[in-house]
Write a structure and sequence with these properties.
- The protein is an alpha+beta fold.
- It contains two helices and four strands, in the order βααβββ.
- A four-stranded antiparallel β-sheet has the order 1-2-3-4.
- The longest helix has 12 residues.
- The termini are close together.
């Protein structure tokens, strides 16, 4: 699944937050018990985007994974990791 079109980069624009949310929901779908992530809305994600750092993995233009991080004291904390099942 790798290839030269695979990239990880900091997501610095609020554009495509709806696509990021859909990818995160797909990554957490099917868990038993269901993850609370599935209840998050676009407004919830937009609020996270304003206070956290988003790293996004893409294959060509398809979003395949993300890491959300937050600064706390002198550290950087991973607040969410999501990877589509086909890319795990």
């Amino acid at each position: 699944m790798g290839g030269s079109n695979f990239q990880v980069h900091r997501w610095s624009s609020p554009g495509r937050l709806d696509d990021i949310l859909a990818m995160v929901h797909a990554a957490f779908a099917g868990l038993d018990p269901p993850s609370g992530v599935l209840k998050e809305t676009l407004d919830d994600l937009a609020a996270r985007f304003r206070r956290e750092t988003f790293l996004v993995a893409q294959a060509s233009h398809e979003l395949v994974g993300s890491i959300f991080c937050a600064r706390k004291d002198a550290g950087l904390y991973l607040t969410r990791l999501a990877v589509l099942p086909a890319w795990r």
